[in-house]
Amino acid sequence: MKTICTTCPYCGVGCGVLANVDDAGTVKIKGHPTHPANLGRLCSKGSALGETFDPEGRLLAPQIGTRSAGWDEALDLVADRFSQTIAEHGPDSVAFYVSGQLLTEDYYVANKLMKGYIGSANIDTNSRLCMASTVAGHKRAFGTDTVPGVYEDLEEADLIVLVGSNLAWCHPVLYQRIVAAKKARPQMKVVNIDPRRTATCDIADLHLPLAPGSDVALFNRLLSEIHQQGCVDSAFVGAHVEGFEDALNAASGEDASATGLNHHDLTTFLNWWIGTEKTVTVFSQGVNQSQQGTDKVNAILNCHLATGRIGKPGCGPFSVTGQPNAMGGREVGGLANMLACHLDIENETHRDVVQGFWKSPTMPEQAGLKAVDLFEAVGRGEIKALWIMCTNPVVSLPDADKVKAAIEGCDFVVVSDLSADTDTAKIADVVLPATGWGEKDGTVTNSERMISRQRAILPPAGQARHDWDIMSDVGRRMGWADAFAYSAPADIFREYAELSGLASALNRDFDISGLQSLSDAEFEALEPTRWPITANAPKGSQRMFADGQFFTPSSRGRMLAVHQNATTKAYGETLRLNTGRIRDQWHTMTRTAKSPRLSTHMAEPYLEIHPDDAKNNGIRDADLVRVQSAEGEAVLRALITDRVQKGVPFAPIHWTSEYASDGRISTVVPSVTDPVSGQPDSKAARVTVSPMSPAWYGFAVSQKGLTPNASYWATARHSRGWRAELAGMDAPQDWQAYARDLFDLQDAEITSVIDAERGVVRIAFHENGCVIAALFCSPEPVSVSRSWAAGRMGDETSSSILAGRPGADQPDPGAIVCACFNVGVNTIIDAIVQKDLISVDQIGIALEAGSNCGSCRPELAALLVNGRTRLAAE
Ligand SMILES: Nc1nc2c(c(=O)[nH]1)N[C@H]1C(S)=C(S)[C@@H](COP(=O)(O)OP(=O)(O)OC[C@H]3O[C@@H](n4cnc5c(=O)[nH]c(N)nc54)[C@H](O)[C@@H]3O)O[C@H]1N2
Ligand SMILES: Nc1nc2c(c(=O)[nH]1)N[C@H]1C(S)=C(S)[C@@H](COP(=O)(O)OP(=O)(O)OC[C@H]3O[C@@H](n4cnc5c(=O)[nH]c(N)nc54)[C@H](O)[C@@H]3O)O[C@H]1N2
Ligand code: SF4
Ligand SMILES: [Mo]
Predict the structure, then answer these.
(1) Which residues neighbour 332 within 8 Å (Cβ) at sequence distance 6 or greater?
(2) Domain 4Fe-4S Mo/W bis-MGD-type spans what residues (predicted)?
(3) Which ligand ends up closest to the CA of 297?
(4) What residues does 760 pair with on adjacent strands?
């Protein structure tokens, strides 16, 4: 048994993980008790990391077309095709599209190869879809892309304002830290600003369901109110801020009517914010992913600069980052308009310093193409060789069908991934097997500038190689042997740290020069450390801007004049589709969907839609809904709820063609971007909805796999195999033959109840006296206890499986809420009612639910209200 300290590969909280590996290679995961980000906590996704090592679907050797190839052949091909294309069409005819999930060392090599050696700035990253507006907003206000705060500020604050941030599901451990802090200091208040009523509302003292897109109007109103109430910190503004008058004038010219908020809620918010010195404003995708994302960021920063609430304990603006190394990618210059170490590509001195340090033959003088433009250039045939690493753009970019067509039409596409089955890898010319989390080694930076080590737990799967190593090898094959002679991540890290010292001399914030002489052993042992890390501060730093000095030419923080644009306007007859995340899946599901535990919470792509919109469009609960826009179409299960506003339905982003027939929601999202940052607005697609009206609906469970053949399908793992939702426009003639094909069980014994006339079908398959598969169909959405039926796979045959639910003597757990202990909604409500439970902690004592990772606690709290209401009615 050995224990390895590493870092979670999912969200930007950056939790420390302890992995225990036994001699058989079995990995047990727990939270690192002393990592400063989580102090032992992990959320549902972090806790289930051990389940994602499943070798099924891993790509084990390079693939050229559909055949396996050796590394030499594959990398020669990549190097030759890139070199040829550059020779014929110039450096800007090639591009890299990379990811905030690469490690810093991978990212550094990608950036050096493209900018310093190929000589193009056509390298952009999925952070363009994620953090670009924050980067642009920070640079406008601070001169650099600096996150000033630290996590402790969230615990020390008296008011936390969450803007467009579903922290309970997307940054669960940070959320739990706030929950704990609020419990210890009940005077702490939380405001949640989100058009949707999310799980995060559970801790909110005030929820502001603003009109989508109206954040600038809200924060402009706040700025003018700060001024009117005489709460501007004039000493701070006088000494450290510029642009105050212009920003205030712009703000004062606007009212808050665009927000649609009622007077009482709005006034409460304004008074709380203005009256509370220790205020932290947290923001993420509800702010960034917008046509005026950058203005939204600056509207927020303006209020903090005007009140001097920045760089001090318990207050400040706080951008929480999405991906594990979103920050590292920004630091290393992964965006098409940046250079390494927060240097700017358009600044000649900066370019010279980087080129001189790299001793590189070339350096682009202008920014490269940003993600959306980059794929448009691919579509026009201007980019002829493209290398996609660690991201799945056929699912995650807006106008996803167009992106897919662009990739299909590109002369030469390389994808580095863990699997050859992702929607993007499937259409590449060459797929290179990269090592994944648990096999990789290097560093990541979390939301609070903390650099932590990811360490290998297991050897690489098959022939998989590290991303930095694959790229360095291609760099050498393209003729730059010395520049890419790295033999380990530590070599790359030291070089990067040295360059940061030169950047710092140019008045840049990012400086880790204190680590430039680390030995290999010291790199191996590197403890989580927050940058800047310099000779004077070798153990790292706390808050930035404590001295009121910013990185602008005048050293003053800049307030910006921003105006609410017209994007909050209702779309008339059409709906405004909001998209985002769910608790237990990570992005395009390539890893989290391997975990049965994580697949129980929400097993199918869905559309949250307001009851009025459902009624107006003839949609009933659990119907299948076609969601259509000018760009494309998706089919999702209707979930009718007033958690969303009328006119503003919501759909999750996770489903791909691997797990659903028509679940890729970005097919309907237009590629509208923020003019400053180039970040797409993923939260405002103009759509219509209509019921799909299939002839039959089905639910299938099986112990082995299944190959869904139906107009609509969605599959998911469960602890005993697979499950699928199905629907068809025409009913099969022979249901038994259909079921045999579905499960590929041509000879297994069958029991069935088939009423062909009514379309009610129940078929079970048996082997050696055990149930191994079952199919339930009906003309209406099938009413079967899913978790119960899935739990019967492999059990001894009994007649009850055809009933689709447990007998009266057996409880039906209902849909799973607590994934750690597999506790269903019915079990929880029954316990609340029968045992008269009054708190989430009591539910934990009675059922264990919510007592491990805690990710389901907001839902338990909601059920508590539900159960208590039922109790009161009885
Ligand atoms: N479980 C899970 N966690 C994750 C991820 C994951 O895939 N799964 N991904 C990670 C990544 S990369 C990221 S970027 C983060 C994202 O984390 P979040 O930003 O919290 O996630 P989202 O769900 O995309 O969007 C947040 C909220 O913005 C709201 N919103 C939409 N429009 C507006 C608006 O105009 N104004 C305001 N104020 N709010 C609006 C949405 O209703 C939504 O609830 O999550 C990270 N954590
Ligand atoms: N409509 C809509 N679209 C969105 C968003 C939204 O809110 N709404 N959010 C956007 C945001 S914020 C983000 S961050 C993106 C995320 O979107 P993507 O980056 O496309 O999503 P992932 O599933 O994280 O893709 C990572 C890929 O890398 C592979 N991989 C994992 N580890 C490694 C590794 O170490 N090396 C290599 N080479 N490959 C690896 C995985 O198998 C997977 O295929 O989606 C964006 N798209
Ligand atoms: S909060 Fe969860 S997903 Fe995010 S880093 Fe921590 S354990 Fe991983
Ligand atoms: Mo993200």
Answers:
(1) 104, 107, 108, 111, 340, 341, 496
(2) 1-57
(3) 1
(4) 755
- 282 contacts 246 by C-beta, under 8 angstroms: no
Q: Which residues share a beta bridge with 706?
A: none
Q: What is the 3-state secondary structure (H, E, C) of 486-515?
A: CCCHHHHHHHHHHHHHHHHCCCCCCCCHHH
pLDDT, the chain, mean: 95
- Torsion from C-alpha of 187, 190, 191, 195, nearest 10 degrees: -150
Interval between CA 391 and ligand 4 midpoint (Å): 11
CA gap 89, 815 in Å, rounded: 56
**Contact (CB, 8 A) for 688 and 642:** no
| pLDDT tens digits along 479-535 | 999 999 999 999 999 999 999 999 999 999 999 999 999 999 999 999 999 999 999
Q: How far is Cα 378 from Cα 125, in angstroms, rounded to an integer? A: 15
Nearest-angstrom CA–CA distance, 191 and 179: 13
DSSP 335-355: STTEEGGGEETT-HHHHHHHH
Cis omega (within 30 of 0) for bond into 732: no
Is it the case that residue 865 has pLDDT exceeding 90?
Answer: no
702 lines ligand 2 (CB under 6 A): no
Contact by Cβ (8 Å): 311, 548: yes
Please tell me the chain's helix, strand, coil percentages from 3-state DSSP, rounded to the nearest 5: 35, 20, 45
Q: How far apart are CA 662 and CA 364, in angstroms?
A: 41
Q: 713: which residues sit within 8 A by CB, 6+ positions away?
A: 660, 661, 724, 725, 726, 727
**What would the mean pLDDT of 606-622 be, rounded to a whole number?**
96
850 lines ligand 3 (CB under 6 A): no
Q: Which domains does the chain have, with CATH numbers?
A: 2-52 (2.20.25.90), 74-130+326-438+464-486 (3.40.50.740), 136-319 (3.40.228.10), 575-691 (2.40.40.20), 696-803 (no CATH), 816-873 (1.10.10.1100)
Reported as a single tens digit per residue, the pLDDT across 214-242 is 999 999 999 999 999 999 999 999 999 99
- With a 6 A CB cut-off, is 194 part of the ligand 1 pocket? yes
In testing the pocket of ligand 1, which one of 128, 194, 219 has its CB within 8 Å of the most ligand atoms?
194
Instruction: Tell me which amino acid residue 739 is.
Output: A
pLDDT for 765 beyond 80: yes
- CA pair distance 715, 392, nearest whole angstrom: 19
Q: Which of 170, 568, 579 to mutate to test the pocket of ligand 1 (most atoms within 8 A of CB)?
A: 170
DSSP annotation of 460: P
Tokens 């659903």 appear where? 660
Residue 321: DSSP 8-state = P
Q: How far is the CA of 346 from the centre of ligand 2 (A)?
A: 28
3-state class (DSSP) for residue 432:
strand
Q: Token match 């809904």: residue?
A: 625
Indicate the top mutation candidate among 167, 683, 856 to test ligand 1's pocket, ranked by most ligand atoms within 8 A of CB: 683
- Residues paired with residue 124 on neighbouring β-strands, in sequence order: 97
What 3-state class would DSSP assign to 274? helix
pLDDT (0 to 100) of residue 568 = 66
Local structure of 160: helix, strand or coil: strand
Distant-in-sequence, close-in-space partners of 127: CB < 8 Å, separation ≥ 6:
99, 100, 135, 323, 326, 329, 330, 334, 335
